[in-house]
Amino acid sequence: MKLSVAQIAALIQADVEGDPSVEIHHLAKIEEAEHGMLSFLANPKYTPYIYTTKASAVIVSRDFVPQSPLSATLLRAEDPYRAFTRLLELAAEMLSPRKSGIEQPSHQSEDASWGEDVYLGAFSYLGKGVKLGKGVKVHPGVYIGDHCEVGDHTVLYPQVVLYPGVRVGKGCILHAGCRIGSDGFGFAPLPDGTYQKIPQTGIVVLGDGVEVGANACIDRATLGATEVKDGVKIDNLVQLAHNVEIGAHSVIAAQTGIAGSTRLGKYCMIGGQVGIVGHLRIADGVKIDAQSGVNTSISEKGLAFRGSPIQPFQRQLRSELLFRKLEEMYKRIQTLEKALEQRD
Amino acid sequence: MKLSVAQIAALIQADVEGDPSVEIHHLAKIEEAEHGMLSFLANPKYTPYIYTTKASAVIVSRDFVPQSPLSATLLRAEDPYRAFTRLLELAAEMLSPRKSGIEQPSHQSEDASWGEDVYLGAFSYLGKGVKLGKGVKVHPGVYIGDHCEVGDHTVLYPQVVLYPGVRVGKGCILHAGCRIGSDGFGFAPLPDGTYQKIPQTGIVVLGDGVEVGANACIDRATLGATEVKDGVKIDNLVQLAHNVEIGAHSVIAAQTGIAGSTRLGKYCMIGGQVGIVGHLRIADGVKIDAQSGVNTSISEKGLAFRGSPIQPFQRQLRSELLFRKLEEMYKRIQTLEKALEQRD
Amino acid sequence: MKLSVAQIAALIQADVEGDPSVEIHHLAKIEEAEHGMLSFLANPKYTPYIYTTKASAVIVSRDFVPQSPLSATLLRAEDPYRAFTRLLELAAEMLSPRKSGIEQPSHQSEDASWGEDVYLGAFSYLGKGVKLGKGVKVHPGVYIGDHCEVGDHTVLYPQVVLYPGVRVGKGCILHAGCRIGSDGFGFAPLPDGTYQKIPQTGIVVLGDGVEVGANACIDRATLGATEVKDGVKIDNLVQLAHNVEIGAHSVIAAQTGIAGSTRLGKYCMIGGQVGIVGHLRIADGVKIDAQSGVNTSISEKGLAFRGSPIQPFQRQLRSELLFRKLEEMYKRIQTLEKALEQRD
Fold first, then answer.
1. Shortest CA distance to B180 belongs to which of B131, B128, B139, B234?
2. Is B237 within 8 Å of chain C by CB?
3. CB-based contact, C14 to chain A, within 8 Å
4. CATH code for C3-95?
5. Does the domain spanning A102-317 belong to CATH 2.160.10.10?
6. pTM of this prediction?
7. What is the per-residue pLDDT across A200-246, written as a single tens digit (0 to 9) for each?
């Protein structure tokens, strides 16, 4: 699909400087763009690229003053990054047009209900008493267990599984293969060394605007609810155990695991492959670096940590530096010992 | 659903002390319970809560003597925790009533067979020669490859995949999206730096009473079998490579990975995000702490380890403590050097 | 299924030494083989086993000279390992005979197309404009989004998901539940601490001969493509973020995660549970040990690294050794301090 620069300018309220008839068929980064592509300049670090880019057009800010001649047509916008993101959104919508209607075969229990403009893909399954809001998109192969509720405009990509009783808010995005509501890992040890399963009768509640990555797992609570609050973003292959609570607008990168009953605050940033042990409280705005191991509650807000077990960020960096100097330290101790010996 | 305290007392053989007509609609922890809920008191640590809980009724032991007046009705039982667990089990059964029968569309190869009281959910697939015991629950979207065998009363949650030839015991629980029998990761390097796939012709055998978490993966053996013995509990997103053997009644927490041909003993406890390299032997009853890296066989039974690479638990804790004191150690070495220099 | 040693010899161009009528019903390792099984001897380390093995027949090299009498029939072949691998391949083919045809119900969009000899399993889904080469095997429950392309003879095991626009080369093997083309984890922070989703409009391109493990996830690019080049082998539960590039014939073990925009060279070997941060460049032939954390680009080819953060392999081993001696070092510093004090 092709659009002229003039048409694009109209979509993003930009002013054209150069040839408005140039045709654009792709969006690209300024350093990778080719002829026929549109890019943008927002971060000053990338300014040098505007003089060498092969892009046919570039979105720049209204006050950008070129220092040398440019080959690209310019689109001047209030906020070039926001304007480009808007075009990305339009492109994304064109890529996967909003589906609606019911594909067959698919399974809807007799008392399942749904709002207008839903999509129920082939081989999807709605259990008893399931309630879907309007505009919900249930892609092929999704399983929604008995009595689940899903809010308006939430998208469930192929093969998502919601176990019975799970509640998902509005405007959420659940990626392929995520499992919401599997049993918590709870077993009572018996005197003979074997284990008895502790029934997991709680649920999972996801707030509004939550995104859950592909193949991530969120276990149901033993009692009560595992809770993921509004606006939380969870990456692929993350594990949240039973009775975990994630505060609003926190982000958790891929392959991180959080053990049972831990409560994470709001606006936290958790890196990839982090492990957090159970029954902790982590304050709002805390940042945990990738591969860290958190084994203690954190009561002060907004601090950054790193390491396994964690230390304050800068202190951990210094410890790591000295870990790499252990050989030197060992030799200096030996030298000191010899020096003392020689004086005896 | 509501039950009176008198009805609940009959279910768990308890004696009522207080109003037997009080209605209960939920089970909850004693510190979180509200009006209309039932809780229990087993761990003495929680005794103070019984004087402040809003629970309408609490299960206590037969010899519990209150130190102050109580508002909750008491149910006196032999073992309060066991009695409460029994109620949880009943609640769990009510939450997901035992399904049976065959939903359509679903696929059963002409020579697949199954016992009485099975459930074959919509979009489930039974390959050639598949044999299911009685009471097996095959939830929607499950795939069972050719010649697999599944023992009595095993539950396969939605979208489990059993590759051809896999054998699963009785009374197992396989959570959504676990993959049993995928190819082991085996490739022979060729002289030009590329790889030739080594066919993985073995199988996977799960014993009785095994639980496998959501999205966990257990690879088939190159030759022979990858074996998970009776009573083993495996958490979400765990990876077991080809020819691994897990001894009976061991538990493995989420996101742990065990490389090829390693044999873990019985009654082991492996924490989350642990990595164990291939071709090791780990003795019975060994405990490995979360995020550890095991790179050596362990021949002594029942010991605890931690760290990457592992050390005996207490020793690793001391090393970690000193890691956090490296800066102090470095400065003390410098001070010593200066002191010696000044004496020269 | 049984074959005589004479029949097997014909399949692998071997010469029989001993009874050619012996019947073989299984392949096994030389140290585990029983009566009726065939094994092989390639690695001299295993030579002692040939005198004690219960195998009915063993493939040996043409120049093998036994030092004592043998009970097993010998098959003399040019390359015993290659010959055995060939039999494994034949066994694997018999285990899962090549399926073809279209099982019902399954979903093919009106303009989807496919070559000869494809298999479209029950409950599989082909979106609009999907193009499959010849001999492609789409197992039950696979979802292939709009406009995906899959090359000749590629196998998609049950419940693989290809999001729209993904391109997969020839001769690839995609294991159960892998997710190709899920959204990259990209969000722009807003002034109020919440996040705005950055549309992920790129694609994923897998080259020829790529293998992707069960439940692995490869995210689509923000713009452009996430690329996995020819011959790359990816193990179970691996995470590749948006805009990652993996050079040809690299191998990545289970549960490793690579963050956004990192480019890995050719012929690299990455161990299990490794984390690599975003925006790095890793040279060809680099080896990273299991559980390492890579936080810096590597420009020199073929080197080995270990640790989190990484150091050159041997140096990291020495640091780890001294980490375990920290207590001794601490005491020696104390001893030095006391010795100096006493001299004052």
1. B234
2. yes
3. no
4. 3.40.1390.10
5. yes
6. 0.93
7. 999 999 999 999 999 999 999 999 999 999 999 999 999 999 999 99
